[in-house]
Amino acid sequence: MKKIVVALGGNAIQAEDNSAAAQQEAVRKTMKTVASMIESGNQVAITHGNGPQVGNLLLQQYKGASENNPAMPLDTISAMTQGSIGYWMQKALDDQFKFDNYPSQAVALVTQTIVESNDPAFEHPTKPIGPFYTFNEMQKQQIYHPDYTYKQDAGRGYRQVVPSPKPVKIINAPIIKNLLQNHFVPIAAGGGGIPVVVDHGRLKGVAGVIDKDFSAARMAEDISADELVILTTVDNAYLNYRKENQQAIGKVTVNELKQYLQEGQFAAGSMKPKIEAAIEFTEKTGKPTIITSLKNAAKLNDGVGTIVYNE
């Protein structure tokens, strides 16, 4: 039995439209795949992104805000999306377990993640959230939201960007470990967890969205996981991605990945944070990280994907 942290990308939730029904159907299909990993005997803790959902909800909040019904702050919106996505995943997993007659239950945990108040990310927002815009659409959005920052996202369009501080500690890690030991499936640190700082001995929510890959690595380390699995839209990380000389990365050492990072091989906001998270977890723990597609999740023992290991 292995203890595994599975980090699900946006493709695990996103659908052709942003309705709850469409997103829940996408989650249902994803959880069927994840259930097969759990039912094979592994202890699995699940985390997930929330970039599109948190951005969309932020827009809804501001469009519907009034003096008597003000918009919620970003840390609370993060908690709201963590709760809704966690609920969808929990329900879908429990339905699958019942169908398969498997004796377990999922638990969606609203998770807080400690960050540093002086993290330079608060001065330089980089985390994309919400929908994609063309250049003209982005300019219109800036008229309505002059305090927002927009940046090009991996050549796919413009998105709002917010601060993305590095996770220091998953506060609820002991609860996650306890749930795993008692044969439950925790869904935790969704969207990277709600960013909080320690202010005079008390926890205080701050505006930002933590990258879920970094929080997945932090959580995997904090719960002493045997493996970190990052599931995304592609089968492997690639060198020279989308070029004629594109090359899939199979087994690779931490030092080799560091060299590829220096060469600028991985797109910011896309593959780069996954690579950095893999390096962080594997270098600190000596345990492997696998980066591959969701459809390969049931074949991890076959050596699929990009497998990161220490020398």
UniProtKB/TrEMBL annotation:
Signal peptide: none annotated. It comes from Lactobacillus amylovorus subsp. animalium. It holds the Pfam family AA_kinase. This is Carbamate kinase. Keywords: Arginine metabolism, Kinase, Transferase. Residues 2-293 form the Aspartate/glutamate/uridylate kinase domain. Pathway: Metabolic intermediate metabolism; carbamoyl phosphate degradation; CO(2) and NH(3) from carbamoyl phosphate: step 1/1. It catalyses: hydrogencarbonate + NH4(+) + ATP = carbamoyl phosphate + ADP + H2O + H(+). GO terms for biological process: arginine metabolic process.
